[in-house]
Write a structure and sequence with these properties.
heterodimer; A: about 230 residues; alpha+beta; two-stranded antiparallel ribbon; B: about 325 residues; mainly alpha; 12 helices; binds iron/sulfur cluster; transmembrane (chain B)
Chain lengths: ~230, ~325
């Protein structure tokens, strides 16, 4: 009896080590660039030029209409900071807050059902609402706090670059078209001729919370007027 | 900022209750197994403490799962968590552990009470009898697997929160250990409380044995809490902000110092040390100490869940 118990425990121990090593290497593989399958030719991204943005919220309104987003929730917000400087030379700073379409997306990693996923063709992070059970793990896991429960479908929702509405018809995301100052640029990161890549090569940009290792694909061009903030 | 409603709050108290109950179940099972193997041997089945654990463990894990399901925004789609798996998701893997845990838990309970169940059945249901006999032959294996599953379940309650990388207080390597240890001590407390309520002897060998383990457990828990917060403060940045926010003078600061540290750890530790020296233990001592540690662990779960979500990176 004693011997068999010890053997059994050894066996279980070995099994557990095996499983955990296997699991660890698997995540490493998934995160590394050396993925075996050929990558698709498209990887969508967006740039928000904070110098051009006037905080009019036209993008927010357009999104609400096109993607049928009810009041109380939103896929995109324009955050306002300020005012800076003395009247009458006051200025504000605006920054877009929406899904960053992370390459290493925490929301996708934690979703128990695979409802939160990365579209292999386009790099868009999307939600398959048929699979979503509403555990809200992804909402808590997203460091950018851009996910919410859609009040009608009761499933997780967020910006998907208009994947199901406008992109499906070959159009640009609606916020990009609605913007009166052309502060938003959308395009394919893998296409060196795209406006997006040209803009990113011409102007310095930053991304939010890169230290978390999420590799976000929403780029910001920082405001140059106003105060220096610490 | 109010204590229970603030911006960025996603998971509310039902999740804290779920985490509490899962850890408690694992802890109760762990102590019942220890009791059987080190003290009671084949007499385990008529110990009120083992009986209490055998009732508490399944009830707590079912209750916890029920709360988890009702807290989904689409409770009727619960089955999808069982059908679709995601190996990178702590929740998905935790549900797997939970399912396996329940099966093995019932097998173990059947082993322990096999004689009793056989007596009750008499000559009826020979299939069940044969199944029971077979289970008893596998008892060593079942016990081994159950210990591993119980420890995984206890740690999982911490990993579930530590996977939230946007919150420095939660995304912390000490958290799973802290939850495991406090889960074990809540299981010990529940077993003691249930046992004396089932008219177990408050001065019996079971109580002495569990109290003997509980003292080092509480000391380890204090050490872990200390490491947890000192680690956060020394990390600086938002980690420090999160830690100082949580421990400050607000509502949750009081819960921590008075509830978790005072009532949940210091008082039970003092009572236990005192009971060790005084000759015999009475019902009231055991029951009150156990209730304090239970409440302390419950408050710790809520404290971590809420203050954890208050400060993001
Ligand atoms: S920003 Fe949030 S929702 Fe969007 S991909 Fe990253 S983690 Fe997911
Ligand atoms: S709420 Fe839906 S999408 Fe988010 S983690 Fe849960 S199942 Fe996945
Ligand atoms: S529409 Fe353009 S200018 Fe107006 S808030 Fe949106 S990004 Fe800024």
């Amino acid at each position: 009896m004693q011997v068999s118990k010890r053997q059994f425990l050894k066996g279980v121990g070995a099994l557990l080590t095996g499983v955990s090593v296997y699991g660890a290497t698997r995540t490493l593989q998934a995160d590394s660039l050396l993925q075996p399958e050929p990558e698709s030719e498209t990887k969508y991204a967006m740039v928000h030029d904070e110098n051009a943005c006037i905080g009019c919220n036209a993008c927010v309104q357009a999104c609400r209409e096109v993607n049928h987003i009810p009041e109380g929730v939103t896929r995109v917000k324009i955050e306002r900071k300020g005012p800076f400087g003395e009247y009458p030379n006051q200025s504000y700073r605006f920054s877009r807050v929406s899904c960053q379409h992370c390459e290493a997306a925490p929301c996708v990693r934690v979703c128990p059902t695979g409802a939160a996923y990365i579209d292999k063709e386009t790099g868009i992070v999307a939600v398959n609402s048929d699979r979503c059970v509403g555990c809200q793990y992804c909402i808590a896991a997203c460091p950018y706090q851009v996910r919410y429960i859609h009040p009608e479908t009761r499933t997780a929702d967020k910006c998907d670059f208009c994947q199901k509405s406008r992109l499906a018809q070959g159009l640009l995301p609606t916020c990009v078209e609605a913007c009166p100052t052309k502060a938003l640029t959308f395009g394919n990161l893998k296409d060196p001729e795209s406006d997006l890549v040209k803009l990113l090569k011409a102007k310095p940009s930053y991304r939010a919370k890169v230290d978390l290792g999420t590799r976000p694909k929403l780029f910001h061009i920082q405001t140059i007027d106003g105060e220096i903030m610490l | 900022m109010s204590a229970f409603h603030f911006e960025g709050l996603v998971w509310h108290w039902p999740i804290a209750i779920y985490l509490f109950l899962a850890g408690l179940s694992a802890g109760a099972v762990f102590f019942a197994i220890m009791l059987k193997h080190f003290k009671l041997y084949h007499e385990a089945w008529h110990s009120p403490f083992v009986q209490a654990a055998a009732i508490i463990a399944p009830v707590a894990v079912f209750g916890g799962l029920g709360i988890l399901v009702f807290d989904l925004t689409r409770p009727l789609d619960f089955w999808k968590i069982l059908v679709f798996y995601n190996t990178t998701s702590v929740m998905s893997m935790g549900v797997l552990v939970l399912m396996a845990y329940q099966v093995v838990l019932f097998a173990w309970i059947a082993c322990i009470f096999q004689r009793r169940i056989s007596q009750l059945l008499g000559k009826r249901l020979p299939i069940v009898q044969r199944l029971l006999n077979w289970l008893v032959l596998q008892e060593a294996a079942i016990t081994g697997i159950l210990v591993i599953l119980a420890i995984s379940l206890g740690a999982y309650t911490g990993f579930l929160l530590s996977a939230l990388i946007g919150f420095p207080l939660l995304n912390n390597p000490v958290l799973p250990l802290l939850f495991l240890i406090s889960g074990l001590s809540s299981g010990a407390a529940a077993t003691l409380l249930g046992g004396v309520l089932l008219r177990g002897n408050p001065n019996g060998v079971e109580v002495r044995f569990i109290h003997g383990i509980e003292i080092p457990l509480i000391l380890v828990e204090i050490g872990l809490l200390f490491t947890f917060f000192v680690g956060l403060i020394l990390s600086g940045g938002q980690s420090q902000v999160a830690a100082l926010n949580a421990l400050g003078f607000g509502f949750w600061g009081w819960i921590f110092w008075a509830g978790v540290v005072g009532m949940g750890l210091t008082l039970p530790l003092a009572f236990n040390l005192w009971m060790k020296v005084s000759a015999d233990r009475k019902f009231a001592y055991v029951a009150v100490t156990a209730s304090f540690s239970l409440l302390g662990v419950f408050l710790l779960r809520n404290f971590i869940l809420y203050t954890g979500q208050m400060t993001g990176t």
